[in-house]
């Protein structure tokens, strides 16, 4: 909890934390008061001390008091909960818009100028709107330091917004259970000063293979940043998808809409697997888990990927 | 059922062990996900929903209202067999097909349609179990309406009976909704009809609505009978009339009723309209009031009482503490701003364990120690019972309190692995789980041993006023030789 408003990482921290403080104060007061009273009664009216109970059947006055007072208190708590949440609903029209895309088990942030990032890079003190898109199942985007969370639901258009107010790095988690690697579906929010953000933002040069780096290495880097390894291992272990180890050149049975067939994993097949992953499903795996990468990976990218996959079959 | 509980408990312990250190400790992510799913299904559908009504309701409901048996003993047997069948189907999902389900007990769409694991039996099992619940509810309602003994007016019924009555209505009216939902899931998975999966033109949020319309009231199926048990134990060991008898009844019925309208608080971040959100938030706060009223009345019953400090009362006091922690932590989950922060974090796991395990679980153990002499005709060793209780209580708090903290610092739930900042509190929590399990087994072994060789119990060891204390321990098959008649001055809490 950041009590000091100057240390609030976003514009919502104050409202949310006020609600927390008030609700916890009331709750802890009641917990302690009732527990102490209860223990006191147990000692005071123990049958050794008080052999004869006084029969009291109830008291309407008391019932009214302890119905009325809690109602007022919860209405108060409701109010502060509502007040801290209300501003989250009012998205400023001129907010800087970033698309947040979630798939099992990775976030991608797409900027207006086409930049794609695994981490969320933000300018300080500027209203930011995230358009939330889930490609497969429900995910949820949660930035604890900003006090925001919103589910990302496939087929629904949703948005969230905030103003980052502190430079630094913050955690971003997926908080809706989404399968095997749910707990590895996280990323980092990096808040930069306006000028640092601008120079990062305008730099749209594509990551080209560094001089001297092998094609296979470039393929690996590309797959790493695209998130392939979330579902495919390179050590032979079976994850949600088949392993890459020894994959290239291998014979496999795949299931197509027209029946089973045997294929050899060649360049042609790898292209198909990346662009139309659900047309042919390797026996023992499930349809619909891998989404097409048609808009994300170019033919050249796939050439690099194939170079890397070849190294795993040597 | 006890065996199932121990299986569920072991799965919980295994998960906590996994979370002892970051990275893989004893199992992989898939096993972890399957473990929390099975743990959830067993605990919710097989233990806490049917638990108190099935065990204590069937046994004591007829005695408490002066009847020889429930209205439809055959139906009762049927409900029991449906339960066995449902449980078997649900558990079988572990052993056949494409591997244990890994969706969590909520089976959220569309993940539950995409996963390759063996979902259908789990869902079918839950569906069958629903029938068991409906049949029990129906049976209890008819029993309470028709079989009260002469002189037992509505307002002379023990509060445990009232709580079963409220519960039975929820079982009867809410369970069919989950039934329909689960059938829709089954149809969608087998016939590809698009209700929930957006890929088929369905809406995943619809699933959540249908699921919680049942599952929130189901929370009250779990807790109302627990409150009923506490309302029996406290007056007996206070030797005093319960404070605010009618207020407690009204609050029971209020919970049963308002409980239908708060399901949306599970979906504050799913994207409902703003108006829906604050209406649900407001109603959620209101449904807390009847629970608060009960706590006040219980504490007031202790005032000027003559307290006989025995094991069942210790359980009732422990219950009140953990139930208050659970309920008050619910305040932060009912308010919008704070719930957005806490939703689907470890905080929620702490909250519902305090209510469901701390609340229902402790009340169950309280009921066990309260009625044990009646059921088995023997006393248990009080020393061991109390030792187990204290250890369990300490372990329980060490296990679940750190989860509040973990949620406050932002750890999501259903997490196989975590970042380093979450490590310390997880160590404490895991160690708490060992302490708690130790306490639980002391309690359990003591009861099992005492059921064989405890000292014979009197008819009325606690000097209670409800009817079960007038029949021999254990009661004969048909409870009463002759149906009792209550006079003007008789009543469940008429202490002198
Ligand atoms: C750009 C990154 C990715 C690449 C290059 C890639 C590549 C491939 C390839 C080549 C296959 C065929 C494997 C075989 O024939 O044995 C495949 C299958 C599969 N992938 Fe991926 N994949 C990527 C991302 C993902 C992700 C993120 C997931 C999980 C959500 C996933 C899930 C699957 C599954 C379940 C299969 C088996 C079904 C099938 O054969 O289509 N993949 N992938
Ligand atoms: Cu996710
Ligand atoms: Cu609820």
In terms of structural class, how would the helical and strand content of chain B be classed?
mainly alpha
Average pLDDT score of chain B:
85
Q: Sheet with the most strands of chain A? A: 5 strands, mixed
Number of strands of chain B: 0
| Number of strand segments of chain A | 13
CATH architecture tag of the largest domain in chain A: Sandwich
Cα-atom Rg of chain A, whole angstroms?
28 Å
Shape of chain B: globular
CATH superfamily of the largest domain in chain A: Cupredoxins -  blue copper proteins
Biggest protein-protein interface? Answer: A-B, 86 and 86 residues
Shape of chain A: elongated
CATH top level label of the largest domain in chain A:
Mainly Beta
Give the distance, in angstroms, between the N- and C-terminal Cα atoms of chain B.
Answer: 39 Å
Largest sheet of chain B, in brief, is: none
Beta content of chain A comes to 15-25%
Helix content of chain B: 55-70%
Average predicted confidence as pLDDT of chain A: 86
Oligomer: heterodimer
> Which residues of chain A sit in consecutive blocks of at least 5 with pLDDT less than 50?
none
Radius of gyration of chain B: 22 Å
Task: Provide structural commentary.
- The complex is a heterodimer of chains A (314) and B (496).
- By secondary structure, chain A is of the alpha+beta class.
- Helices cover 33% and strands 22% of the residues of chain A.
- Chain A has six helices and 13 strands.
- Chain A has helices at residues 13-44, 60-89, 194-202, 215-226, 267-275, 299-311; strands at 96-103, 106-110, 116-117, 120-123, 128-134, 139-143, 148-152, 158-162, 168-174, 186-192, 251-256, 259-264, 281-282.
- In chain A, the strands form three sheets. Chain A has a five-stranded mixed beta sheet with strand order 3-2-1-5-8, with no helix packed on it. In chain A, strands 4-10-9-6-7 form a five-stranded mixed beta sheet. In chain A, strands 12-11-13 form a three-stranded antiparallel beta sheet, with no helix packed on it.
- In chain A, a hairpin with a 4-residue loop joins strand 6 (139-143) and strand 7 (148-152).
- The longest helix of chain A has 32 residues, at 13-44.
- With 496 residues, chain B is mainly α.
- Chain B is 67% helix and 0% strand.
- Chain B contains 15 helices and no strands.
- Chain B has helices at residues 2-18, 29-48, 51-64, 73-92, 111-114, 119-146, 159-191, 204-238, 245-258, 274-302, 311-334, 336-342, 346-376, 382-408, 423-453.
- The mean pLDDT of chain B is 85.
- Chains A and B meet through helix 1, helix 2, strand 7 and strand 9 of A and helix 2, helix 8, helix 9, helix 10 and helix 11 of B.
- The structure holds protoporphyrin IX containing FE and copper (II) ion (CU) (2 copies).
